[in-house]
Amino acid sequence: MPKALVTGGAGFIGSHVVDRLLEDGYEVTVLDNLSDGTLDNLVHLKNDKRFLFVEGDLRDPDVVSRLVKDVDAVFHLAAHAKMRVSLGDHRVDLEHNIIGTLNVLEAMAANNVHDLIFASSSAIYGEATVVPTPEEYIGIQTSLYGAAKLASEGYAEAFVQFAPIKFWAYRFGTILGERCRRGAIWDFEHKLIKNPKELEILGDGKQSKDYLYVKDCAEGILLGYKKSSASINIFNLGLQEQTTVDELASIVIDEMGLANVKRKYTGGPRGWIGDNPVVYLQVEKIKNLGWKPKMSPKDTIRLTAKWTVKDIEKRAHRAEHSETLHS
Ligand SMILES: NC(=O)c1ccc[n+]([C@@H]2O[C@H](COP(=O)([O-])OP(=O)(O)OC[C@H]3O[C@@H](n4cnc5c(N)ncnc54)[C@H](O)[C@@H]3O)[C@@H](O)[C@H]2O)c1
Predict the structure, then answer these.
(1) Same domain as 158, residue 64
(2) Which of 105, 251, 273, 302 shows the smallest number of beta carbons within 10 Å?
(3) Does 10 contact ligand 1 (Cβ within 6 A)?
(4) pLDDT digits over 240-259, tens only?
(5) How far apart are CA 155 and CA 169, in angstroms?
(6) Among 121, 181, 245, which residue has the most ligand 1 atoms within 8 Å of its CB, making it the best to mutate?
């Protein structure tokens, strides 16, 4: 039975990669410090003997080395992904994302583990002047998060030159689906629960993004890994379709059963520094390997909006219940 280590496996995308690996017959260990992830994402696996969860931090080289030791592949998804936090804390991406990745690479090289599959980001293209943006495009960095993803890719590519490591990097657009507890849908629903009459939208609402369903994303990661065998394999993962934040807001409002919601824009083409107004990825490279995403962006947004409503209710109920138990 092949063995995989999934860093960040308690997170949104990582937990779906874990599910997909188990479906494929892998034994899976997850390393996650639960800073942003939650065991709720893995609770359905608690009786699966092929699955092990380890709470630990990527920044600790001893933990990483111990877990990397006897696996066949490392799916490295753990990262600090909150762009706006790194505007104030300039070291957080360096420490979690670059040094964290270096710890993985050193552990793999020392333990003769070959396959590194990495969650990169379309953030590395910055405000791309070529759209749809191909993998060859080199952009100016607009966020420390993007800069750290690019540096991590660079470190991995350099390790490939002197260690027996093969590297797969996937540059995602915006991934949505069950267990997504960050981003526009999460933000909008929380705001609309507080005030169903008005919605504050960061930016001008015209930002257009490439939304991809998380299960199509996990499928793409596994398919690219199985079907490409160069020493360095880099793929965009998106749908090559654009949806504006305003269109997304309309679906969320509709899904929450609201009407006549006044939209208040903070203005400007970006929601925050580092919010690239247009993300539109060329995805022929992965499609040419046979990847066929099943879900459209609109259906993905609707499904995520529906799931989020239920998740917020579930959490509120749990919080209320635990308050009652403690009072
Ligand atoms: N969600 C997206 O749309 C998107 C887009 C582009 C790239 N990505 C990348 O995909 C990966 C997964 O993203 P996600 O949306 O699932 O985020 P997430 O925050 O849900 O998952 C990241 C996980 O990493 C864990 N983690 C963070 N720092 C850690 C550390 N130092 N040690 C151990 N664990 C740590 C967190 O607890 C969390 O469970 C990340 O690398 C992210 O940068 C995500």
Answers:
(1) yes
(2) 273
(3) yes
(4) 999 999 999 999 999 999 99
(5) 12
(6) 121
Are 227 and 198 contained in the same domain? Answer: no
Active site residue 145: yes
- Supply the pTM of this predicted model: 0.98
| Residue 197: inside a domain | yes
Cα distance between residue 315 and residue 212, in whole Å:
25
137 within a domain of the structure (yes/no): yes
In tens, the pLDDT along 146-203 reads: 999 999 999 999 999 999 999 999 999 999 999 999 999 999 999 999 999 999 999 9
The count of domains in the chain is: 2
> Rounded to the nearest whole angstrom, what is the distance from the C-alpha of residue 15 to the centroid of ligand 1?
10
pLDDT band at residue 320 using 50, 70 and 90 as cut-offs? confident
Q: How far apart are CA 151 and CA 98, in angstroms?
A: 7
The answer to whether residue 320 sits within a structural domain is: no
CATH number at residue 19: 3.40.50.720
Query: What is the rounded distance in angstroms from the CA atom of residue 111 to the CA atom of residue 172?
Result: 29
Q: Convert the pLDDT of each residue in 222-231 to its tens digit.
A: 999 999 999 9
Q: Is the pLDDT of residue 137 over 70?
A: yes
Q: How many Å apart are CA 279 and CA 128, to the nearest integer?
A: 8
What's the gap in Å between 11 CA and the centre of ligand 1? 6
